[in-house]
User: Fold Cytosine deaminase from Trichocoleus desertorum GB2-A4.
Amino acid sequence: MSSQSYDLILRHCRLLRSPDALESVDVGIQAGKIMAIAPHLEATAQQELDMQGQLVSPPFVESHIHLDSALTAGEPRWNESGTLFEGIEIWRDRKQSLTLEDVKQRAIATLKQQAMQGVLFVRSHADVSETNLTALQALLAVREEVQDWITLQVVAFPQDGIYGNPQNQALMEEALKLGVDVVGGIPHYELTREDGVRSVQQVFEWAQQYDRLIDIHCDEIDDDQSRFLEVVAAYAIRTGLGSRVTASHTTAFGSYNNAYAYKLMGFLQRAQLNFIANPLINITLQGRTDTYPKRRGVTRVKELWQQGLNVSLGHDCVQDPWYSLGTGNMLDVAFMAVHVCQMTGMGEIDACYDMVTWQGAKTLGLGDQYGVEVGKPANLIVLAASDRYDAIRRRASVRYVISQGRLLVEMEPTKMIWHR
Ligand SMILES: [Zn+2]
Assistant:
């Protein structure tokens, strides 16, 4: 009998250790780290939890959200056209009244909603096209405040374009100096195509100068002539920054003709960028100027995945001027991806789960910080499900969330009584 003792032992886990490995094991946790994984641990612990064969998975990763605008839907008015551009106008008005407290309170409320549903890693954009950088300062403060239970990356996001306003370039530089993790851009919303190309070049220069990751809102439009993805790919190839670069949305890629898309796919292979699709938002905001047939407005998720490129999925918005719905549940996002991207094959459904877990972790550059393995930080979730397919099909509830070795959330199973 071993005298080994842990802080916490999870018994009878159905552990999703890697995308294709399900194991029946116990997990021993000590001092915030995973210390042992074995079919049966001969050890004691201060606390033992019986997982009863439920699915134990690495946490969900939210790779694309805007926490600064979250929970503002209807303020100061509702988005009646449902378009991206009316959303930007409404946000332009709402952000006049931002205060540090306002942003912090909504961001933390949203992060709690996410954590309750198994999200422990989040990348949020912070709009920096507002003179006081209120949204950015608030999210940087939140990043520190929540670091004991959730990891937040902050992107400097020039919502109105880097060159859309004379002061925006300086605001981006200021944001970098204040300590953002990631440099953002929005080339398709710059005033001209030339400004768009110039903005991509500037983003890469800043990323190199300040040693930051890149995440560009790229071609989030149905215009089949919006072709900044090729510009981002070209800079990634020339700089060799590939895996540190993410192209978010790329919805125009869904409208490109196949001859061009085929050529581009070869460049993307060389560039090895990360991609983020936001299926809830893309299916809702895009295609608004179409009559019929209406486009789905989502990037080529299946084809990028088939090419072996890293694709993750984001929620993008939770109750804001662009999307009045949303709860932060990543299984809702994966479920929508299965439908909108027609990822209904068995392996494809599983892949959509991977896009909100391992592939999101790759986008965020989490490296060894992510995954349920001996020696890694003890971040994991327990789902009322038997496997990835089951989790997505039923949008399974999260029973336990373990963050940095400690129980963060425990959810009682809901009770249903059948009366006949
Ligand atoms: Zn976005």
Observations:
- The CA atoms of residues 71 and 319 lie 5 Å apart.
